[in-house]
Design brief:
The protein has helices at 6-17, 33-49, 81-89, 109-114, 144-154, 163-176, 187-197, 203-211, 216-229, 245-250, 296-303, 321-331, 336-341, and strands spanning 22-26, 52-57, 74-76, 93-97, 119-123, 134-137, 230-233, 238-243, 273-280, 283-290, 307-308, 312-317. The protein has 344 residues and is an alpha/beta fold. The relative contact order is 0.11. The protein has a six-stranded parallel sheet, with helices on both faces. A six-stranded mixed sheet has the order 7-8-9-10-12-11.
């Protein structure tokens, strides 16, 4: 952990050293595999040590992330607000995982900011804001799950990693690297995976649970998007998918159904930049992916109130879907040189 002062680790270790503390763990809204895997993995370790741990997700999470061996319940704030707020009031420690700004927790933002007891942030996204008392931010890690494994070791809780926690942390690494297709230039990623596999996790089962566990409606929506809603800008090495709110309804959309759609256009020869715009209530959600050295996090930050990593980022904008597509098309020529020069 190159960016974290050793004193921060020591303070976190001391904070968690006393057992039987009430701890709440919060991932970001619309949590992905890394957010859920990190939350479950750390919760299992802390529970094994002797703490009372609750996971509170700001919003619902995908069905394909509900197969874990861990029986730990994840409370969904958007559905059980009163219970979640009571749990937070009784918590001695709050741990935020896999997000770098309080606003990324959606409707839990205010609760996080006003939380009076110690707050810990563990995350791998760049440019963290100062909203927690103890910040462990390491952008050199493939995922928050990989970082949590090293944090657990550093604070002396490595002996409480079990098959259940290893399974969850492995899932976080697997999903945030796209099955180890990006973000894996650091050998530590594979060293951590090797350690996790020693706990007897079924990697084939995890792969199947994450990537071969979708509904027929989701597959039909994907086919529809690729056939009818994908626009390719070959002269700019870019592709775009857009989905309207009505189209989501037409295909019986459930949380997580569009997960990974943005990656498909990158399979097209010579495409280095892929985008998906999804219409929600009064807002357009955007996801960006890239190859090589094209920084989509900068693109998201500058134009879509977002951020993320070099090759994977997200954002949002308060425009109509058509206006968003037009804006994107107008922005692209300014990036032509970068896009054409990107090596893959």
């Amino acid at each position: 952990m190159k960016n974290t002062d050793i004193q921060i680790i020591a303070q976190v270790k001391k904070l968690l050293a006393e057992t039987s503390r009430n701890i709440s763990i919060i991932p970001h809204e619309n949590p992905d595999g890394d957010a859920i895997g990190s939350a479950i993995g750390f919760a299992e370790v802390l529970t094994g040590f002797g703490h009372h741990v609750n996971i509170i997700s700001p919003t619902e999470y995908p069905d394909f992330l509900k197969w874990f061996s861990s029986e730990r319940k994840i409370l969904v704030y958007s559905k059980e607000k009163r219970i979640a707020e009571e749990i937070l009031r009784q918590s001695d420690i709050l741990i935020c995982v896999d997000f770098n700004e309080a606003k990324r927790a959606g409707k839990l933002e205010k609760s996080i900011l006003k939380y009076a007891n110690p707050k810990i942030l563990i995350d791998h996204h760049p440019y963290p804001s100062d909203f927690c008392d103890y910040t462990i931010s390491e952008t050199g890690y493939s995922s928050t799950a990989e970082l949590i494994f090293d944090v657990v070791k550093a604070i002396g809780l490595g002996g409480f990693i079990t098959k259940k926690s290893a399974e969850a942390l492995y899932t976080g690494i697997l999903t945030d690297t796209g099955s180890f297709s990006h973000g894996t230039s650091n050998p530590n990623t594979f060293q951590v995976v090797s350690e996790l596999m020693k706990f007897g996790i079924a990697v084939e089962k995890i792969q199947s649970g994450v990537y071969h566990n979708f509904s027929a409606d989701r597959m039909k929506l994907l086919g529809y998007c690729l056939n009818n809603k994908m626009v390719v800008y070959p002269e700019l090495r870019t592709a775009l998918i857009s989905i309207s709110k009505q189209e989501l309804l037409d295909f019986n959309f459930k949380t997580g159904d569009t997960e990974g759609f943005v990656n498909f256009p990158l399979s097209i020869a010579n495409i280095v930049f892929s985008t998906i715009f999804i219409e929600k209530d009064g807002i357009i959600k955007a996801s960006f992916r890239s190859k090589g050295n094209f920084h989509v996090n900068h693109f998201a930050r500058d134009h879509f109130n977002g951020g993320g990593h070099r090759n994977a980022a997200g954002g949002e904008i308060k425009l109509t879907l058509d206006e968003t597509i037009d804006k994107f098309a107008q922005l692209l020529p300014a990036y032509k040189h970068q896009l054409l020069e990107t090596e893959i």
